[in-house]
Write a structure and sequence with these properties.
The protein is α/β, with parallel strands linked by helices and 474 residues long. The chain has 19 helices and 11 strands. β1, α1 and β2 form a beta-alpha-beta unit. The N and C termini lie far apart (93 Å). The chain binds 6-phosphogluconic acid. The site of 6-phosphogluconic acid has 12 residues, from α8 and α11.
């Protein structure tokens, strides 16, 4: 290895994401260095035989290959490993150097690292990266937050490697400290919600309408040409076409029904509960992945509580698919609305200085939840930067109203036939309470006061009150 190799960008963690992102940066003409404690991964990088990418077997050689101020991105598994790598780095880099954590780190960890590294004189950026392996190679959506000065230094590189939407890069500075990882976490919460909605849609098409795989493919394919156009529907369409070579059934039908999760959906629900922001579709999506893992329990219960032999709906299929399209639209809007509401509230609580229109803008390309509908979200927040909830936007209001009959039909038919649609139901229940001026929560307050003297407030009267409820004067 030549000693005078000088690079602009360093990557620690040469898994597929790290390697692909580094190749993407090298494609833009930057000299790049890579390091991984797995020597095989370093060799794989060097075996790419690219002039402007070099892998190093020791952290010292890696760091020495970088121009100052050094820019180093970490793409390693979230959690303790990030702290271990940062500690190792601090011994070999200088004050003023830039560390970017590009993994799916928990925002609370990023908050701590951000403050700690600032105190020590290093520039730190916590950056969400979305778009999977292909996105990393060809253009991801990126959500950097933290040190604004450091962002300015790396901005030209990030803008070049990002996906482009309407000619604009899908990257922007999100806000203070852990803002980038918070935004990415909420992105993933919405991702979980939409994936759950799609799996429930599959259930209605397969069990309720008894469509075969080809017809299900066609439904998703058609939806993807219209207002539901999105990356998640696009890949679902592909999945309903994929057969292993030499086989004549879908690979999908051989896959176990136990969904895994790395945690970002759960973190979204936890963060939302900490802030008292309701995100029930995301909560349900996390819970249903959890329920899917209890295969043995579900198998026993299936014998104890069998479904009726036939779940088939007696309906006109084409007409019903239109209603289902409306229902999906309604629930999808609700999933985004809940995520955006969480961002709105987190912004106030954590003083992130988020721009919700900018977030919608960079989600329009490159990321997993990119969709046609993000254009409407972008417009809504662009028109009104203070918009508290998407349901209050005029254009969204109109489309939601037009879709309510669809979701009512789909949820009520599912309830009558025993088809489980918890995410669709959560979307509708959330909406029906959201648009209720008087919720029945006065009863909860009375009960709390009854058994625990927790007091209640009265309509039209200042103060808090307590009643000895047992002294009933009947
Ligand atoms: C993305 C994805 C990415 C990853 C998820 C998977 O935006 O590119 O969200 O971050 O695929 O972390 O999450 P689960 O394993 O929890 O489904």
């Amino acid at each position: 290895m030549e000693n005078n190799y000088q690079s602009t960008f360093g990557m620690i963690g040469l898994g597929t994401m790290g390697s692909n992102l580094l190749q993407n940066i090298a494609d833009q003409g930057y000299n790049c260095s890579g390091y991984d404690n797995d020597i095989n991964k370093v060799e794989q990088l060097n075996n790419l035989n690219r002039q402007n990418i070099k892998g190093f077997a020791t952290i010292n050689d890696f760091v020495n290959s970088l121009k100052s101020p050094k820019t180093i991105m970490l793409l390693v598994p979230a959690g303790k490993i990030v702290d271990i790598v940062i500690n190792e780095l601090l011994g070999v880099i200088n004050k003023g150097d830039i560390i970017i954590d590009g993994g799916n780190s928990h925002f609370i960890d990023t908050e701590r690292r951000s403050k700690d590294l600032e105190r020590k004189g290093f520039h730190f950026i916590g950056m969400g990266v979305s778009g999977g392996e292909e996105g990393a190679r060809k253009g991801p959506s990126m959500m950097p937050g933290g040190d604004a000065q450091a962002y300015k230094t790396i901005q030209p590189i990030l803008e070049k490697i990002a996906a482009k939407d309407n000619g604009e890069p899908t990257v922007a500075y999100m806000g203070n400290r852990s803002a980038g990882h918070f935004v990415k976490m909420v992105h993933n919460g919405i991702e979980y919600a939409i994936m759950q909605l799609l799996s429930e849609t599959y259930q209605v098409l397969k069990k309720g309408l008894e469509l075969n795989d080809e017809d299900i493919h066609d439904v998703f394919d058609t939806w993807n040409q219209g207002r539901l156009q999105s990356y998640l529907i696009e890949i679902t369409t592909d999945i309903f076409k994929y057969k292993k070579p030499g086989e004549n059934h879908l690979l999908l039908n051989d896959i176990k029904d136990e969904a895994k999760a790395k945690g970002t959906g759960k973190w979204t629900s936890q963060a939302a509960m900490d802030l008292s922001v309701p995100v029930p579709i995301i909560d349900i999506a996390v819970s249903m992945r959890d329920l899917s893992k209890y295969k043995d329990l579900r198998t026993q219960a299936a014998t104890l509580y069998p479904h009726a032999n036939n779940l088939k709906y007696e309906v006109d299929k084409d007409d019903y698919i239109n209603k289902l399209e409306q229902a999906f639209y309604f629930a999808m809007v609700s999933a985004y609305a809940q995520g955006m509401h969480l961002l709105y509230c987190a912004n106030i609580e954590y003083d992130y200085k988020l721009n919700l229109d900018l977030i919608a803008k960079i989600w329009r390309g490159g990321c997993i939840i990119r969709s046609e509908f993000l254009e409407d979200i972008y417009r809504a927040y662009k028109k009104d930067h203070e918009l508290e909830h998407l349901f209050l936007d005029d254009a969204i209001h109109k489309n939601l109203i037009e879709s309510t009959s669809g979701i009512r039909t789909v949820v009520s038919d599912a309830v009558c036939h025993g088809v489980a649609l918890p995410a669709y139901s959560a979307a509708l229940g959330y909406f029906d309470n959201f648009r209720t001026k008087n919720m029945p929560s006065n009863l909860i307050q009375a009960q709390r006061d009854y058994f625990g003297s927790h007091t209640y407030e009265l309509i039209g009267e200042e103060g808090v009150f307590h009643t000895e409820w047992k002294n009933i004067n009947s």
